[in-house]
Amino acid sequence: MGAIWAARDFCLFLLLLNSRQSAALPEIRDPCADGSDGCHIDAICQTTQGSYKCTCKAGFKGDGKHCEDTDECDLEHNGGCVHECNNIPGNYRCTCYDGFNLAHDGHNCLDVDECKFNNGGCQHTCVNTMGSYECRCKDGFFLSDNQHTCIHRSVEGLNCMNKEHGCAHICRETPRGGVACECRPGFELARNQRGCILTCNHGNGGCQHTCEDTENGPICRCHVRYTLQPDKRSCVERDEATTESSDHNATSFTEVDKRVKRRLLMETCAVNNGGCDCTCKDTSTGVRCSCPVGFTLQPDGKTCKDIDECELHNGGCDHFCRNTIGSFECNCRKGFKLLTDERSCQDIDECFFERTCDHTCVNSPGGFQCLCNKGYTMYGLAHCGDINECSVNNGGCEQGCENTMGGFECFCHPGYKLHWNKKDCIEAEGLPPEKPPSKPTLNCSKQEGGDRCFLTCQSQVHISSGTEDSYTVTCGMPLPCLADAQKNNSGLYCLGPELTSVPRIKTTATFKSGTAKCNLKRSQEKLKESLNSARSDSRFLFTENVQFSYVSLRCTSSGQRPRSRHGRKAGEEDGSSITAEFELDVNVEEVTAESCDLNCVRRRSEKRLRKTIRTLRKSINREQFHLHFAGSDYELSRNPDQPAELAGHCAGGQVLMGRKCVSCSVGTYYDGDQGRCLLCPAGTYQDEEGQMSCEVCPGPEGREVSKVVGARNMSECGGQCSPGHYSHDGFLPCLPCPLGTYQPEVGRTTCFACGGNLVTKRSGAVTFQECETKVQCSPGHYYNTSTHRCIRCPMGTYQGEFGQNYCVSCPGNTTTDFDGSTNIMQCKNRQCGGELGDFTGYIESPNYPGNYPANIECTWTINPPPKRRILIVVPEIFLPIEDECGDYLVMRKSSLSNSVTTYETCQTYERPIAFTSRSKRLWIQFRSNEGNSGKGFQVPYVTYDEDYQELIEDIVRDGRLYASENHQEILKDKKLMKALFDVLAHPQNFFNYTAQESREMFPKSFIRFLRSKVLRFLRP
């Protein structure tokens, strides 16, 4: 004991002595501390007595001054990895083939049971196999070519449908009525031309470790540290195998000295992996256990436990974190997509896809909202249909009502004229004649290079711009074409002599532009000057000088045209079309009793109009068509995709704010001289955005002008009778509506009668609901004042309120499934079917994304060009299974029930699936019964060069395409699918995407999956 204390005291003495000597010596520089050591970046600097030492870090080799990475994958039999070894700086990492997961030891690979997740996507039965899985069908069904869905086996039909054809995988009909067998990717057709032999290209040949192809199929081998099991597929560690066989081998350990055995078990990794759960390393002090990434070593120093990365800061995931064995996975909420860092979530801009909404699409985080232009209303969640205002109490018109696209107009019988409120009719006799507004004028002239035309509008100008690349400009007042109006044989014009003493011609022309998109931009200053000088120059001779009563220019880009259920045809290009409507008053002063009667003059006018349209067409084709209205000049532009860097690039009624064109708000108008939005002056109002002028407040002549500035609607002009009141001119002073009448609008000269001798509860009633009816009608009904009963709303109409005397017509071309409908969502578009395009297109259930109608039958056909095949992706489909397959979608070779079937379903599947057509052409049918309805489907397709058939089938039949939730979201992302389909249809489009764009569009796992397929396809 004394020796021990002496040694301790001696050590303390040496320490104290050393500290005193250090204090007396000058400060010694430490290169390791100040960074002047010169060690390599991958080396460690260690301070020694009076010097330092550079040592390469673990995983690197060298003298410390120069270190290079040690490639562990070249050492110790592939780094100990049973599948693939990936060297990384200072370390290495084992990875497994598709269909396997890395084991806890970080080296072995274990089979993934794909059937545990969503039944592997199989419609019926999923059977797991080593490295893969396969779907099987119930009796009476056979597996379709997509290897996931099952098709009912027809009782009657061709060989592949109803006979034991003997094909192990795929059966094809031959022209002579026989069968030809094919195998799925990763299999080879056997010599008997019926069976299929597994190869190493499918699920690693069913081998856990190494697979080698032979004539009789794959042969499995194991890594040097493992031994093959009796099943000839699985592998276990050799030490474990030795231990398991020791019960049958009496000499296993009996001849070994017990002390040596104990030492081996405790101090070496050679026996039982040193007791380590994962990685074992022999050291001078014994074994040292470690765990791979994603696991942590437990206090016993042996066991590895999975780290739940999601518990700490949600794993770094923006939205959802799902823990997996040895790792984790980030997922995003609906409406978001996972970025390439596999952590961050980005909002999906649904509005990027031009078919999302009919009119205006407003994107929001995780969703979007569709909006309709004024005069239209929403149906089917994304569509816009014209509101038939005349169906609701005659539109409030006292006499006649005509519905128009996006609006309506009241008109009066002969002897009456329309009141200032545009609803009531007053006697025309004794009223002072109104000053006619200036008419729109079209002037055209021959200049250098061809025709140039100017359309000038000084009054009654209206601009509607529902989207960034569509617009409608109207000028003047249209003449309604009534049911009893006269029409010529070609339908080019209509006459309404009962409304005016001047006959009018109405004609429509369409001007197409193959490369331009709609863009109405203000002319630049230099162009303005040239236009003004041209208009004022006496030498500026007009070849055409026509005054119209009404002009409408409606420009629609290809992406904004009404949806077609016929897909996209070959040769159909992006572009725009301008639909122009002209109304021209016949000059009755040219009528002479001797030489030319009214019909003669009208024919002359038609001839001049046709000539003017031809000149206008040339002007538009040469981009020499200009508009002048509200003090501003505008031109059609073919370069709308350039950024709006100048205010002159904004459309009519818009100003530049920041770098975005914004429409002037209601209550304001765009002033061309000042180049900004101004409040409507007193006595005017504006109830629409993006207008070039304000409307004059209604009122009798001599009435005091309203002092309200910036009035946003007619009622803000002031002085009008409020709802429930009336006067002889619609302005103050006013009287309340008498008992038995009501008035819901402002500024009216009469009140509506309840009808049927009904009375109101009080004077000044505002709605029919204040009339004391015999019964109160529920939604879906209207009150009949003749029978005093509630009548169900007929098909094509609905009513969502109690106690009304009318039903509202469904918007646009929609109708209801049955009578008695209670809301607009029951109005559905039944349009569907047709012949689809040659390269890309889509089929969708009618009224999608709203519920499809009842008792509908749609038929589509796809006829690819020569040497092209069809690929179809079903992102999701919603068909109610409660109807016992009353609603179904089927894809066959032809309409014959026994023809080759590619796809058939009557259920809901939210898991996407892709497949190639089993036939050269496709006949597609969707039918619904009168039972339950659903959202239906929108299914895109693409035709591709048949030289890529093997590659495409290899991709779509591989279950790994659907294994990851992130991969499934790719097949549902319309933007990404469009990019993939564009390249498949036209491979040259691949060069439109940079490598960086491709990496940013798709997750790394998806790119790796496709790359492996392409490389295998290109491998000689």
TrEMBL record:
Disulfide bonds: C351-C361
Compartments it resides in: Secreted
Official protein name in the record: Signal peptide, CUB and EGF-like domain-containing protein 3
Species whose genome carries this gene: Lates calcarifer (Barramundi)
PANTHER family: SIGNAL PEPTIDE, CUB AND EGF-LIKE DOMAIN-CONTAINING, SIGNAL PEPTIDE, CUB AND EGF-LIKE DOMAIN-CONTAINING PROTEIN 2
Lineage: Eukaryota, Metazoa, Chordata, Craniata, Vertebrata
InterPro entries: cEGF, CUB_dom, EGF, EGF-like_Ca-bd_dom, EGF-type_Asp/Asn_hydroxyl_site, EGF_Ca-bd_CS, Growth_fac_rcpt_cys_sf, NELL2-like_EGF
Extent of the signal sequence: 1-24
Record domain CUB: where: 832-944
Region (Disordered): 557-576
Example of a GO biological process term: signal transduction
Keyword flag Acetylation: no
Superkingdom of the organism of origin: Eukaryota
Alphabetical keyword list: Calcium, Disulfide bond, EGF-like domain, Glycoprotein, Lipid-binding, Repeat, Secreted, Signal
Pfam families documented for this protein: cEGF, CUB, EGF_3, EGF_CA, Ephrin_rec_like, FXa_inhibition
Gene: SCUBE2
